[in-house]
Design brief:
mainly alpha; 0% strand; flat
Length: 84
């Protein structure tokens, strides 16, 4: 019984984590944390720019891990420090 409960918990957690990653980039909600001193207005502009760039490169695969890595790399190349 304990094994079955543990297995169900594991499957539920995996399903929830998959649902989280399936949408934020596509809807433009993905926004990494930055240090407190970051110019938020400039960051949002650069974030939008990077998102559009990556969408052009990967198309429908925008929610894949490599697309998120490319997106984060774009922001890092613009000089941002990402905390998450």
């Amino acid at each position: 019984m304990l094994r079955l409960t543990g297995l169900l918990l594991l499957l539920t957690l995996q399903a929830c984590s998959g649902m989280y990653m399936s949408g934020p980039m596509m809807r433009g909600e993905f926004s990494p944390l930055t240090p407190a001193g970051t110019n938020n207005e400039a960051f949002q502009e650069d974030r939008s720019s990077c998102l559009k760039q990556i969408e052009k490169e990967v198309g429908q695969l925008i929610n894949e891990n490599f697309a998120i890595i490319k997106f984060r790399n774009c922001l890092i190349q613009k000089g941002y420090v990402l905390l998450s």
